[in-house]
Amino acid sequence: MALSSLLATIHDNLRGVRRLATPLDVATVIVVVWALRGALRVARRSFKTTKLRGPPRKDLIFGVAKQILESPDPGAMYEAWAKQYGVAYEVPMTLGGKQIVLTDPRALAHYYARETWIYVQTNSTRSFLRRNVFWTRGSVVGRQRKLLTPSFSPDAIRNVTSVFYSSAHKVKSAWEVVIDTNTGGSPVIEVQEWMNHISLDSIGLAGFSHDFGSLDGKPASITEVLDTFGSSSERPALTVRLLLLARVFPLLPYATKPRTRLFREMQTIMEDISSEWLARTRKEREEGALDRKEEKSVIEVLANASDSDSPLHLTHEEVLAQLSNNTSTAGLPPNFLPLQMKSILIAGYESTSITMTWALLELARNPNIQSKLREELLAFGEEPTYDQQQHSLPYLDAVVHETLRVHPPVTDLFRVAAEDDVIPLSEPVVTQSGKVVNSISVARGMQIGIPISCINRSTEIWGADAKVFRPERWLEEGGIPKKAQDIQAYRHLLTFVDGPKTCLGKNFAVAEFKAVMSVLAKDFVFELRDGPNTQVEFGRGMILPRPRIVGEQGTNVPLRVRRYE
Question: Which of 66, 326, 331, 400 has the most other CB atoms within 10 Å of its CB?
């Protein structure tokens, strides 16, 4: 048979097959190929990863993931497993997945040193939070963090400390009015909402040069969106399942329509704010009315990066690209500034307000600690500057960092290995086969879990009183155990994580925290509304779990508040 005839016959046969194939056939082939690809990946991970011991799979679909998500104290669960299985162990997750959990200081140091290129965000995290400085990797994250780092330098924070005090004094004045008009003893004030408004207005002015006005009672779309996030007491069972399945199927979060709609509204609001600010800035620059050396907010520092002597120095083309919302020539994503504004709002608003609420709760629970803090603040007298916050008020510093230790806003995090790796351990663990190992092999694609709240409150790391709120540990000689000192993060805490992607805004958050506490704890006395046996649980926030007094709706934390006299 001639070659041309053979090719014609093959072509005709292929056309026949194509005509016979239905969309269902094509879909079936795609599913089979996807399943085979997934099975090969799972097999490779299983073969190359050290098989560690861990809790049994109690739920066929969700493993222990649902149990962790719904637990009132996930850190206690992680710690119990660490005591039973060792400093590195394996937990069963959704749809047959597995996750290695690390609680060992040496393993954590290794992990965080390699976070930006080996241990990266999961697909679901990247899909949900898009491309910004908190979630990008490699050279992109280095570029973006270089741009933002000067915005959170001591000089930059020193310039915006007055914003924090202004917000705190607005709350002080409002509470004094409530106390003066109350005739039935100490009024009950829902403090978490006020902490939300302090955090929102402070991040607005200090971060974006924008006054949200929530402390002044101004109606604002962003306030409504953020308040709506915390209005639901519990996650519906369907939402819990979708969140867990989303770790396997990244597009599933978009099926939770109400919350997706709220996040889209937030994105639109931040784009409007950034566009308005950029237009105003461009006009002021063209008119020569903008003093680039007087920048105070984060966004002003970013926009002024075109100065040739700026430590981050954006090129002229980059600045023009950002002012016109075009893609930067240096590899920055489109709409870089709106994305960073949204990121800073998400990262800073909720975490700071949660931490300040926990601080007020702990002061109400511990009258002696509250009195000791107030005595230091009254003895100091004047309103502390940023530098005095750092060096002149040791007990305030201790209360702040004990709150960050006991109540980290982010209780745990997950990453996935982008490459094969070997993680060293400071103490050996026993594998499923009974072998004792001093390091563990991790295959590409394996999930790694870091239980932050567990590590911050671990009795193995922080001593027998690790669960107790005791600020004095930060002031006593030997108060920080040697094993805790091996945690190489900020103040030996994983609250702000560690490594190349440690939280850029940690000093910003601590300065705001100290400013607010120095005003409120000096002038007011806080008491639990229902007495010393008041129970606290977790409610549902925007992204993070929030404290809530048992029996209250949403995330309400009502405390009795009176003037100190």
Answer: 400
Q: Is the dihedral of CA 181, 185, 189, 191 positive or negative?
A: positive
DSSP codes of every residue in 303-357: HGGGSTT-SS---HHHHHHHHTTPPPTTSPPTTHHHHHHHHHHHHHHHHHHHHHH
- Reported as half-sphere exposure (CB side, CA atoms, 13 A), residue 278 has a value of 21
Q: Which two tokens stand for residue 232?
A: 């639901």
3-state secondary structure 237-277: HHHHHHHHHCCCCCCHHHHCHHHHHHHHHHHHHHHHHHHHH
Alpha carbons 58 and 71: distance in angstroms, whole number: 15
Q: Is the separation of the CB atoms in 69 and 78 below 8 Å?
A: no
Q: What is the bridge-based pairing of β-strands 119-120 and 558-563?
A: unpaired
Q: How far is CA 175 from CA 61, 192, 198, 529, in A?
A: 49, 13, 13, 16
Length of the chain: 565
State how far Cα 556 lies from the chain centre: 21
Packed helices 336-365 and 394-406: angle between N→C axes, nearest 10 degrees: 100
The reported pTM is 0.83
Of residues 261 and 412, the one with the higher pLDDT is 412
Closest by CA to 207, choosing from 293, 290, 299, 291, is: 299
Mean pLDDT for 378-395 is: 93
8 A C-beta contact, residue 405 and residue 457: yes
β-pairing, 98-102 vs 447-450, is parallel
Top-ranked range on mean pLDDT: pick from 3-7, 394-398, 537-541: 394-398
pLDDT of residue 498: 87
3-state secondary structure of 467: coil
Alpha carbons within 13 angstroms on the beta-carbon side of residue 354 total 28
- E strands present in 154-296: 188-190
Three-state DSSP class for residue 490 = helix
User: Whose structure tokens read 């007495």?
Assistant: 531
Q: 């104290």: which residue's tokens? A: 73
Crossing angle for the helix pair 336-365 and 191-208, to the nearest 10 degrees: 150
Task: Give the separation between CA 308 and CA 70, rounded to whole angstroms.
Answer: 52
Q: In which element (H, E) is residue 124 found?
A: helix 123-129
Contact yes or no for 450/68 (Cβ under 8 A): no
Residue 62: name the closest of 29, 93, 26 by CA: 93
Helix axes 191-208 and 154-181, enclosed angle (nearest 10): 150
- Name the phi and psi angles at 522, rounded to 5: -75, -35
3-class DSSP assignment, residue 129: helix
- Kindly indicate the confidence band of residue 320, based on its pLDDT and cuts at 50, 70 and 90: very low
The three-point CA angle 126-132-136 to 5° equals: 60
pLDDT of residue 116: 74
User: Is 164 in contact with 205 (CB distance < 8 Å)?
Assistant: no
Name the band, by pLDDT with cuts 50, 70 and 90, for residue 329: very low
Say whether pLDDT at 378 is over 80. Answer: yes
pLDDT-derived band at 414 (thresholds 50, 70, 90) equals confident
C-beta neighbour count of 476 within 10 angstroms: 10
Nearest to 553 by CA among 230, 258, 259: 230
